Amino acid sequence: MFKFLKEKLKSVVDSIKKSVEKEVETKEVEVKKKVVKKPKKKVEKKEVKKEEKKKPEVKKKEKKPKKKEKPKEEKKEEPEEKKSFLKKIFSKKEEVKEEKEEVEEKVEEEKEEKEEKPEEEKKGIFKRITEKVTKFNLSEEKFEELFWQLEVTLLENNVAVEVIDKIKGDLKEELTTGKISRKGVEEVIKDTLKKSIEEVLDIQTFDLVKKAKKKKPYIIAFIGVNGSGKTTTMAKVAHMLIKNKLSVVFAASDTFRAAAIQQLEEHANKLGVKMIKHDYNADPAAVAFDAVEHAKSKGIDVVLIDTAGRLHSNTNLMEELKKIVRVNNPDMKIFVGESITGNDCVEQARVYDNEVGIDAIILAKADVDEKGGAAISVSYITKKPIIYLGTGQAYDDLTKFEKKIIVKNLGL
Predict the structure, then answer these.
(1) Can you tell me the distance from the alpha carbon of 68 to that of 56, in angstroms, rounded to the nearest whole number?
(2) How far apart are CA 141 and CA 146, in angstroms?
(3) Maximum distance among all alpha carbons in the chain?
(4) Tell me: the pLDDT tens digits for 281-317?
(5) DSSP states of 174-208
């Protein structure tokens, strides 16, 4: 089931992943180039050198006033002061030398420390770069370019435009406004797709058997176009109800085709179910009415009405269906659609819902549906739950619908 769509989705996700990774790599290179252009290290060295040169000059200026004070003492004793003066000069020179040596040692130490700092700064800079680049946002323009691949894939697989818009909106929000990791691009896309499809399929469902047990007789009308598998699906539902200890009667209200009455009668005989029928071209609403009255008189639990396949575009035939619904007031109107028809199935369900109102959906031939567009779209468009999937020709081939089945079959 949905094999074609699954493979296509995998291919597109891989393609988007590669495109995003390339985009990140180019951004990473740009960021690194910007960082390399800024000569922060040289500026710091120059500032240090200027400060170092100023230090010895400041000390020399502080010693100048001492030289001015010495002449006052020299006036008293000139010969002795000359000797002491020379001694002082030599001693001061030695002090200055020592101070210079200390300053030079300090300068060398500072240089060594600053030669080590650039390495540490380099590490810090590259950490900052990786933090900026490993998480990023796609531009809206780039997103539109990449999403086009996915949009085409979904359209090819009969996914409704409304569903595509929903998926697009969710992905856009995740990839352009949130921050994603380069390493987790594939996971982000898959998780977002999974979440979107789960939300699309998140229409509250119900247990048909439990509903049928609440009222007697419980009346169910099966509607849909010719060839959708409506009659076979009705027989499968009858088999399920009988297994749950509910009695059933058929109403052969498809009087438009003589072969339809014969087909339903064969199913009734195999299942051991009573069938109410009239002649070919009889009033379908009258046949259904008789079946309901029979159920009431015999204490039968469920009445299943088989209707003729009306084309949703034929207003006259749709009026006939409306009469069946109006006269018999069914408790449940189930639309049976052929899963493999994709968007046609979705459009049929939409029109039937607008014309007569549908309560639930069964998708027939889901086992041979390689695309899955109808299964993804029909419930979202009509806001009605898919309750079962037809997965074969046998009576037991009726699978309870669960959204996790769809998600699993899509490889998400």
Answers:
(1) 20
(2) 9
(3) 154
(4) 889 999 999 999 999 999 999 999 999 876 656 677 7
(5) IIIIS-EEGGGHHHHHHHHHHHHHHHHT------H
